[in-house]
Amino acid sequence: MDKTLFEKIIDREIPASIVYETDNVLAFEDVNPQAPVHVLVIPKKPIPKLSDADIDDQSLLGELLMSVNIIAKQLNLNNDGYRVVINNGENACQTVFHLHLHIMGGRGFSWPPG
Ligand code: AMP
Fold first, then answer.
1. Known catalytic membership, residue 38
2. Does the beta carbon of 94 lie inside 6 Å of ligand 1?
3. How many other CB atoms are there within 10 angstroms of residue 66's CB atom?
4. pLDDT tens-digit profile of 73-98?
5. Stated pTM of the model
6. CATH number among 3.40.50.980, 1.10.1200.10, 3.30.428.10, 3.40.309.10, domain 5-105
7. Residue with CA nearest ligand 1 atom 13
């Protein structure tokens, strides 16, 4: 199967501005930022979307959320707050089918989202 864009970023085949990396997780700046800070956090394991994760992925999913926490501190987002988004599938406008968490900060957000 063809590699997704994000697998190519993991393999350093296409460039990205990487802000955080562990054995299991990579985070990099979104190329089309929707906020002053917009970072994507991905597992290195190619899970297409959240609903494809299974019980074996439980600790990896926890590690992704903890990574968000660490990165948000690193980027000084804690004082004002930030939004974390997972688009899952077509109705949610997911465009890259490699699980990713959006961290967005540096501005206020409204609710409900569009
Ligand atoms: P989603 O709509 O949740 O699937 O989000 C995919 C995100 O990937 C979008 O916010 C895009 O701007 C972002 N994106 C697409 N290509 C790249 C890339 N080469 N580097 C960084 N972010 C990207």
1. no
2. yes
3. 12
4. 999 999 999 999 999 999 999 999 99
5. 0.98
6. 3.30.428.10
7. 30
